[in-house]
């Protein structure tokens, strides 16, 4: 399962992408819902934030415009930073680079949660929402790069669109006389999108329930879970590399 965190030159399987969706889309849904419960705002809902920004421009309250602009900018910066780190890692042949990115994200999420546990104040809400949006940018960019665009952990509007396209392709293929060559690929793609959507939805429901029960402690636990998965991916990769070196030495 931890193979899902490795970017290879060859093609990825849909099973790896579905495991990735189960991990990153679920945690994205959880964090999004927790932020809603804590601050009344979605840190990864860029379509809604952009639409709201366009409506706020006509108002005289500049602070709302700046806040929404900061959220959108933070998401883009997070995505950009994830890409720059990934490029550097791939260039230097660091196979665990995406695990390292997730490790950094998980640690930052834990630190943010601990800050809120110890020093929560409504005066800091805007800054925390902006920072969570930055983390969501990292999160979505990482899943998108790993899966070659097939899994977008926070971008459910696009995933629903892709699922509709894949379903349409399946139906069109079924209507042809000889669908055998294409339907398997189209069906696999649709199932991958469906897993992503359901993972985000289940994560959202779980996130609200967890936040109501445990508050920011549950957010710290999500960060810890991401860290564990990232560390597991790094260790699994290193163990495989050591085994390969030993086999080469024996031969």
Automatic annotation (TrEMBL):
Keywords: Membrane, Transmembrane, Transmembrane helix
Record flagged with keyword Transmembrane helix: yes
Superkingdom, natural source: Bacteria
Keyword Signal found: no
Transmembrane segments annotated in the record for this chain: 20-42, 62-85, 97-120, 156-175, 190-211, 217-239
Protein name: DUF1275 family protein
Originating organism: Rouxiella badensis
């Amino acid at each position: 399962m931890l193979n899902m965190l490795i970017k290879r030159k060859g093609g990825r399987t849909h099973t790896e992408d579905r495991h990735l969706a189960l991990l990153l889309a679920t945690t994205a849904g959880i964090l999004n819902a927790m932020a809603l419960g804590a601050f009344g705002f979605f840190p990864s809902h860029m379509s809604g934030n952009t639409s709201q920004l366009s409506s706020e421009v006509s108002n005289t309250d500049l602070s709302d415009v700046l806040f929404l602009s900061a959220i959108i900018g933070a998401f883009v910066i997070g995505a950009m930073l994830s890409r720059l780190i990934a490029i550097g890692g791939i260039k230097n042949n660091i196979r665990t680079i995406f695990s390292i990115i997730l490790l950094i994200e998980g640690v930052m999420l834990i630190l943010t949660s601990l800050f809120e546990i110890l020093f929560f104040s409504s005066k800091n809400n805007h800054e925390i929402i902006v920072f969570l949006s930055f983390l969501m940018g990292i999160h979505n960019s990482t899943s998108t790069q790993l899966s070659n665009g097939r899994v977008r952990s926070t971008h459910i509007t696009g995933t629903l669109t892709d699922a509709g396209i894949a379903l349409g392709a399946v139906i069109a293929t079924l209507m042809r006389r000889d669908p055998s060559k294409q339907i398997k690929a189209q069906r696999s793609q649709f199932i991958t999108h469906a897993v992503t959507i359901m993972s985000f939805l289940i994560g959202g429901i779980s996130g609200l329930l967890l936040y109501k029960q445990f508050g920011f402690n549950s957010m710290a636990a999500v960060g810890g879970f991401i860290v564990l998965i990232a560390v597991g991916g790094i260790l699994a990769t290193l163990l495989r590399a050591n085994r390969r070196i030993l086999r080469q030495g024996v031969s």
